[in-house]
Amino acid sequence: MDLRFTAEEIAFRDEVRAFFRSEIPQAIRDKVSAGRHLSKQDIVTSQRILHARGWAVPHWPVQWGGQNWTPVQRYIFNTEMQSEAVPPPLPFGAQMVGPVLYTFGNAAQQQRFLPRIAAIEDWWCQGFSEPGSGSDLASLRTRAVRDGDRYVVDGQKTWTTLAQYADWIFALVRTDPLAKKQEGISFLLIDMRSPGITVCPIVTIDGGREVNEVFFDSVRVPVENLVGQENKGWDYAKFLLGNERSGIARIGVTKERLRRVKRLALETPDGDGVLWDDPAFRKQVAEVEIELKALELTQLRVVAADSKRASGKPDPASSILKIKGSELQQAATELLLRIAGPYAAPFMPEPENDDALSNAWPVGPDWAAPIAPQYFNTRKVSIYGGSNEIQRNIIAKAILGL
Ligand SMILES: Cc1cc2nc3c(=O)[nH]c(=O)nc-3n(C[C@H](O)[C@H](O)[C@H](O)COP(=O)(O)OP(=O)(O)OC[C@H]3O[C@@H](n4cnc5c(N)ncnc54)[C@H](O)[C@@H]3O)c2cc1C
């Protein structure tokens, strides 16, 4: 198998790289690179620039704004986006509910929502997890009871990322409490401005406000907001989670972080020289780099195989990519922590004030202040998208046949 890019693919890579560098505001890319908090406006600005170029949802069907790219082009695009520190299009729309709608939604839902998702005119959030129903998602208890042309929704979602900005939530709800647990679930689109919805922040260990609890108290939802068939929501959820996992290795993110590690280590005093002179430190960096290169080759093998797969189903190898990719993202933040040394002491900014997260920092060099929050924040990558333990179960069953 030849894993080298063709001349056309290299030209494509150069084109997207040049676009990211020249069109996405440097101030936004600097924030991503430094691990600083992005505002809602930063994410909207970046996605709208991509959208104007036709690149907000390149993986979608052409009819809805997609690009008909090969799996290799998609891989190059995503890796370059990460490596150039460009905020990705809001995943809850572009990666999650969008593909569910163009695959299982009806024509009215597609026309109403898909163009607005691509242009980020609506902000979507994901209402799957509940207290006690994370890995065991099918045990979810939020219920929707049909009442004429409405469903009445009662229950609670949790860990709902950026729900504080959301116009819409796509939620898994129980519509048949008597059926086997996977068979009584439906996929509902709920307007976040509906009476009876309350969003409460969960402040994370890095002091950020990224996740929320969302409560539903007799929320009335029009039946036309049901996606596909009633009680078939588990099938749509599995499809969505498969999409979420592919590309989750985020190799470009780790590449970008390692470049930063080297740059900072060359500037950081250590004894009579700089930290980069320390062979033990360089060995740690080399170990992560070698593992990253191995992961990249594995990812390219999966991408090459994907080009030939007819089923369209995600490769179970994506579980391997998820585990290793998340571990390497975390390893790079550990190297950054080592560079910042005592300046990495945790600092908790005011969570209520977005500006405080990006502007008010304690003693030490400016670059060091976000390193501890970034380290803590990156612990999440081995939990979300299906925890790494769950991925190991998938590998045991689907690959090892245990
Ligand atoms: C930062 C962040 C953002 C998130 N955003 C969203 C969001 O926007 N929307 C949403 O719906 N959800 C979101 N989640 C939730 C995420 O999907 C869940 O946290 C995840 O599925 C794990 O569920 P849990 O937290 O309930 O942990 P649990 O399922 O209770 O697991 C606890 C521990 O037990 C292990 N474990 C559980 N079952 C098994 C098993 N069968 N075998 C081996 N080990 C097992 C797990 O790996 C974990 O280590 C987010 C989570 C985080 C951390």
Which structural traits does this protein have?
Butyryl-CoA Dehydrogenase, subunit A, domain 2; Butyryl-CoA Dehydrogenase, subunit A, domain 3; four-stranded antiparallel β-sheet; globular; alpha+beta; 402 residues; four-stranded mixed β-sheet; single chain; binds flavin-adenine dinucleotide
| Count of discrete structural domains | 3
Low-confidence stretches: none
CATH class of the largest domain: Mainly Alpha
Give the DSSP E fraction (strand runs of 2 or more residues): 5-15%
* Number of beta strands: 10
Topology:
Blueprint: H1 7-23, H2 26-34, H3 40-52, H4 71-83, H5 91-104, H6 107-118, E1 124-127, E2 143-147, E3 150-158, E4 168-174, E5 185-191, E6 197-203, E7 209-222, E8 226-227, H7 233-245, H8 251-267, E9 269-270, E10 273-274, H9 279-308, H10 318-340, H11 354-359, H12 371-377, H13 388-399
Parallel strand pairs: 1-4
Antiparallel strand pairs: 2-3, 3-7, 4-5, 5-8, 6-7, 9-10
Helix pairs in contact: 1-4, 4-8, 5-6, 5-7, 8-9, 8-10, 9-10, 10-12, 10-13
The site of flavin-adenine dinucleotide has 18 residues, from strand 1 and helix 13.
